Amino acid sequence: MSIPFEIKFDENTYRHHVDGVTMVMHCHHYMSLTVKLADAMEDMGAVKILRESAEDSIRELLEAYFKAHGISSSAERLNIGREMYSVLGLGKMEVFGNDGGGEVKLVRSHVDEGWVQKFGKSSKFVNHFTCGYLAAMFAVSFSRAARTYNVYETASLAMGEPEGKIIVKAN
Asked: Which range is least confidently modeled, 22-26, 66-70, 132-136, 145-149?
């Protein structure tokens, strides 16, 4: 890991914090069941809610990290966002992009791989959390507002592809 990253644990509240932002540790059971619930409640907009919730929570974390470490370069912010994805245990990605959007290749994905372990191969895209993560990562990297980027999967590890592919486009 090349980025400085320290998780602090509060013995009184039993909470984890990174640069003042409270974090909840996750597991593939939680993530898979959250996605399954969102898909089941799609008629109520639950997938959108999951993606936007991920975007909002990751945005707060990235903004705090960049402020605490004095990171202002867009390219460096994108790279740190890529690295933080791995540091948080979410997987491994390669990112190509600019303020207009880009393409992300998922080499590993906690969400996709957890889905397959829990439910088997999926018949549809399931990585809504990472789509929200990427919307936040691009928006914060280029000092844009929330909901600036549309993010969608075009290939999925959960569907049996050798790697995932996600497209990011500015509105």
From this structure: 22-26
